[in-house]
Amino acid sequence: MGVHSKKLLQAQMLQLLVLLVALLIAATTTLPLSKPGCPGMCGHVEIPFPFGTNKTCSLNTSFLITCNHTFSPPIPFLANSSSSSRPVPVLDISLDGKLQISLPVATYCLNKRTLVTRSQEFSLAPFHLSSKQNKLIVLGADAAGLVYNNDEYSDILYSTVACVSLSTEPTPIETCSGTFCCETPIQQRLSNFLYISFVNIFNENDTNKLQSYPCRYTFLVKDGVYNFNISDLLNFNSTSTFPVVVDWALGNTCQDAKKNASSYMCKSNYSEYHCAEGGHGYYCKCSIGFQGNPYLPGGCQDINECEGSNDCLKGTSTCTNSPPGSYSCLCPKGYEGDGKNNGTGCSPKFRNNRIIIIALSEYIIVC
Q1: SS3 of residue 17 by DSSP
Q2: CA atoms 12, 15, 21, 23: torsion sign
Q3: Does a cis peptide bond (omega within 30 degrees of 0) precede residue 50?
Q4: Which of 295, 274, 358 shows the shortest CA–CA distance to 38?
Q5: 158 is a domain residue
Q6: In this structure, are 118 and 159 located in the same domain?
Q7: pLDDT by residue (tens digit) across 250-281?
Q8: Structural domain of residue 231, as residue ranges?
Q9: CA distances (Å), 117 to each of 147, 166, 282, 364, in order?
Q10: Cα angle 331-335-337, degrees, rounded to a multiple of 5
Q11: Three-class SS of residue 126?
Q12: Which terms does the record give in the GO molecular function aspect (predicted)?
């Protein structure tokens, strides 16, 4: 092997070594979000504490996640939910009091003179549907959809959200504005609920429309996810599922946060509590300049702003990751300022050179 080939091989090995070291550093600096010794993932979904895949790893049974390994990759489900149709898959868990689940479609179809209906019923307690981030969608000609609140402490089943899709126009239009498609926000905190789809009772005898558009669909969906398409009236996949936002919190009211130090769940230094939506409990967040899991002791770690984007003058000032939760930009020797683009920058220090004249008798000394 020639000298040139040896040098090339050495250079390639050095590059590989640098890459391996960088990957090792990245792996060791990734902050764990689950309890020590607990699985941090189920399939593609991260499972951060207070959630966990067993009773040891979760705060309590309300935050228990069932990781079903019969799927490839495994799929997480809410272990504490109950459903008349299927378990509730979890799509994402956020530490700021939100998680996303997947819910199916309720249908009402006339199939060869046979009426086939499918309602959907779920219990998410102690969690509840977000009252700001979800919508009820109803598709079909003269279709209607209802969401009922199943209050376990009451024998009364009552409707809380309703939407009616009319077919007053001869042909559908490409907006979900009430003709062949309607949508309405879900502004109630629902934990136990049922949603159904059916024909508008004022036009249920219109057989022509039933034959032209034999199915009606009702579903809940995260705001901004679904866009109405005319083809959905005839080609909609009734087995589809849609993401829905669910709120979770600790305690019953925001005032519960620091009433009892032993039950206060913001365990990490540099963490703070925030009131959940409507003041129904609280959740924890790392302070500004820190990241990680505020529910774990030592879970909030300082963000090194010098490794990412920052406001230091590129090529002039030097980024220093201090004080904790922030950073500083140091100007080079002989310069002053905060060293930032959107600050005072760096400018040469003003030197006040003075000429001192000392007069002694007949002689003048200039310094």
Answers
A1: helix
A2: negative
A3: yes
A4: 295
A5: yes
A6: yes
A7: 988 888 887 877 889 999 999 999 999 888 89
A8: 101-247
A9: 15, 20, 40, 111
A10: 60
A11: coil
A12: calcium ion binding; kinase activity; polysaccharide binding
